[in-house]
Specification:
Strand content of chain B: under 5%
Radius of gyration of chain A: 18 Å
Strand content of chain A: under 5%
Largest sheet of chain B: none
Distance between the termini of chain B: 92 Å
Order of helices and strands of chain A: HHHHHHHHH
Number of domains of chain A: 2
Oligomer: heterodimer
Shape of chain B: flat
Structural class of chain B: mainly alpha
Largest interface: A-B, 46 and 38 residues
Order of helices and strands of chain B: HHHHHHH
Shape of chain A: elongated
Number of strands of chain B: 0
Structural class of chain A: mainly alpha
Radius of gyration of chain B: 46 Å
Helix content of chain B: over 70%
Chain lengths: 187, 192
């Protein structure tokens, strides 16, 4: 974390190498986020590149009291939202927020649920998860990717999206169960 | 304890619960087959989700981004080096050419500079002539427009405003009639 801030400071002082190190550190996780959000590798590479350019151009607005990675992903998330807004393909906005807290989703363990453990090898489950990911709402997919692919904590995700931690936890849970349901439907 | 809710199972697996709650869940799991099965299902699901294959970044990606952010700046030394390289390549090319056509170098250089000088002279002459003609044409146009303006201003002082309106109206009618006639001439036989 402090390493990021040092690199930012050095970049602002004109050290190009420092920004190159930032790119090298974040290019892979950012590409994995973009790739799964837009579902097209070429586009994901372009977007990842554009996000780094945007990050560089607004580096002087970065406030050191925040975590650099959350700031970077906030820029990336806004970039994806803008892209979808321009393309007018955002039926369920990534910014969708529940103001009344009525979206809480809860599930009891059912008496008889189909087992994916017995049916598939882990490799096949992964392939099916990739397919199912593209079928869930964008705002749930984004949080699922951050949590289980990028490895963010719930608190970090809440900071990026400006949502309460409880809402984020519940949405990630919704995403997981939605994906699981899709896997079951394909049994 | 009642059966565990599914969201609690996930939080338990992700170690997001306080130790006291985790302990309660563990106690319940030891005696509830349904919840144990649900937990195993979610454990496998999370293992699969967290092990999704990562996308590979192209090896030149960092350099591409850096090039986009910091476009290459050529220093003065770089420019001088490029000029020197271009000049020396020209000399080498010239020498090769002379060798190929098997001519005496001083004689070839003399004829080459002569031809080059003549070409430059001819181009310069054409340019000068064109410039003279263009400036003459511009002067004529300027004089004509000045005379036209003088004439018009004289007419407006002599002729009363009513007659001026009649003249302008007649001129407009003539212009439109002419334009209509031209149109008929060119599009004769076509459907309106």
């Amino acid at each position: 974390m402090n390493e990021d801030k040092e690199l930012v400071e050095k970049t602002l002082k004109g050290e190009k190498k420092a920004f190159e190190m930032i790119i090298q550190k974040y290019q892979k996780p950012l590409l994995n986020y973009m790739g799964r959000m837009v579902g097209n590798m070429e586009l994901a590479l372009d977007f990842t590149q554009d996000v780094f350019v945007k990050v560089y151009s607004s580096l002087n607005t970065f406030q050191p009291q925040y975590k650099f990675s959350t700031w970077l992903y906030k820029i990336a998330s806004n970039y994806v939202i803008d892209y979808w807004r321009k393309k007018k393909i955002i039926p369920l906005s990534l910014n969708q927020q529940s103001n009344d807290g009525s979206e809480h989703f809860s599930l009891q363990v059912p008496d008889d649920e189909p087992s994916i453990v017995q049916k598939f090898e882990i490799k096949e489950i992964r392939e099916r998860i990739e397919q199912a990911l593209s079928m869930i709402p964008d705002y749930l997919r984004e949080l699922f990717i951050w949590r289980h692919i990028n490895g963010f904590s719930y608190e970090e995700m809440a900071e990026i999206k400006g949502l309460p931690v409880g809402t984020v936890k519940n949405r990630v849970f919704q995403a997981k169960e939605m994906i699981r349901k899709l896997l079951e439907e394909k049994l | 304890m009642n059966c565990v809710r599914i969201e609690q199972i996930y939080l338990y697996l992700e170690k997001e619960l306080p130790p006291s709650e985790s302990k309660k869940i563990e106690e319940h799991l030891s005696s509830c087959l349904k919840c144990s099965k649900a937990l195993e299902e979610r454990r496998l699901f999370l293992r699969a989700a967290e092990g999704l294959p990562a996308f590979d970044v192209p090896p030149d990606f960092t350099q591409k981004v850096m090039a986009k952010i910091f476009p290459a700046e050529v220093s003065l030394f770089g420019w001088l080096a490029a000029l020197a390289a271009a000049f020396s390549s020209m000399i080498v090319a010239l020498l090769i050419f002379v060798l190929v056509i098997n001519q005496n170098l001083p004689r070839f250089l003399l004829s080459f500079t002569h031809t080059l000088g003549n070409s430059i002279k001819n181009i310069a002459l054409v340019f000068v002539k064109f410039y003279k003609l263009a400036s003459l044409y511009f002067k004529l146009l300027q004089q004509f427009s000045q005379e036209l303006l003088k004439g018009l201003s004289l007419l407006t002082t002599i002729i009363s405003p009513e007659v001026q309106i009649i003249i302008i109206t007649i001129t407009l009618i003539l212009v439109f009639s002419f334009a209509y006639g031209v149109r008929r001439k060119f599009f004769a036989g076509e459907e309106p």
